Amino acid sequence: SSEDEVDVLLHGTPDQKRKLIRECLTGESESSSDDEFQKEMEAELNTTMRTMEGKWKSPEMGTSSSTGQTGPATTSKYYDDIYFDSDSEDEDKIVTQDVRKNRRHQQRRILSNDELLYDPEEDSRDQEWVDSQRRGYRNQRRVPLQQRTKPSAVPNSDAVLNCPACMTTLCLDCQRHESYKTQYRAMFVMNCVVNKEEILKYRKKPKKRTKKMKHSKETTSIQSNEEEEEVYHPVLCTECSTEVAVMDKDEVFHFFNVLASHC
Q1: CATH number at residue 186
Q2: pLDDT > 90? residue 41
Q3: φ, ψ (nearest 5 deg) of residue 25
Q4: Which one, of 217, 250, 247, 251, lies nearest residue 235 by Cα?
Q5: Which region ranges are annotated with the description Disordered (predicted)?
Q6: Quick one: 43 and 84 in the same domain?
Q7: Are residues 99 and 17 in the same domain?
Q8: What does the alpha-carbon distance between residue 262 and residue 72 come to, in Å, rounded to a whole number?
Q9: Could you tell me how far CA 42 lies from the centroid of its own chain?
Q10: Do the beta carbons of residue 78 and residue 59 sit within 8 Å?
Q11: By the 8 A CB rule, do 255 and 170 touch?
């Protein structure tokens, strides 16, 4: 009857509940299920029910049932008391050891990343990745793997340079100009492309000449003017083609149009 079924669902054992659910789904009782296919279906149903019952149990119920067991599996599910220690003598006098123990099991369970909504170790992994990238832009790539006994120190950079238009990272290791604070120079860059077809020429500041140099020949003056011209190639961002720097003949990059994140 329906009353018996309700009573089984409320107060019955897990085996009785599974039998009742099996009868409701298949329409047959346990005594009539002699077929091999029916037995396979029953086994699969039992497995599904056990899995569902395990999901229905809350984390507190699951941990409370294993309090009698000793081992690292039970102690690692809770934060250590030192993690929440406030170093307050007044609190130590008021709060007893029993209260601390109960409160630890109730409120100080180690939460997963999904429950915290963030990964506490992600910042450390990101910092390690950035440090490895900065080391890679030094001469370490020229050293054979057999000779790399330990990682080199992270280079001291004045800033991290980014594109002003799309904020793409352009350089992790650079040196700031002594006079012009918004200009930087670097040897190793990323996300940059050099336009070798376009040439930029800049004249150096003329130096003071002596009287002997004024009486020199015209040919020597023309040659000196040619030598005083510096040749550069424009450097563009690979993501948005914004001109961010120039490269000289020594393949040194001079950044002048960047967003600097100072270290």
Answers
A1: 2.170.150
A2: no
A3: -80, -40
A4: 247
A5: 49-76, 205-225
A6: no
A7: no
A8: 45
A9: 46
A10: no
A11: yes
Give the range of the structural domain holding residue 25, as residue numbers without chain letter. Answer: 2-56
Q: Specify if 99 maps to a domain.
A: yes
147's tokens: 């000779």
| pLDDT tens for each residue of 51-92 | 877 766 555 444 444 444 444 444 457 776 666 666 665 555
Amino acid letter at 220? T
Please give the C-alpha separations between residue 20 and each of 27, 30, 41, 51, in angstroms, as whole numbers: 10, 10, 15, 17
- Token pair in block for residue 241: 């083609």
Q: Which DSSP state fits 122?
A: H
Contacts of 252 (CB under 8 A, 6+ apart): 185, 186, 187
Domain count along the chain: 3
Spell out a b/e string for 64-83, using b for 16 or more CB atoms within 10 Å of the CB, else e.
Answer: eeeeeeeeeeeeeebeeeee
Q: Which amino acid, residue 250? A: D
Instruction: Please give the mean pLDDT across all residues of the chain.
Output: 73
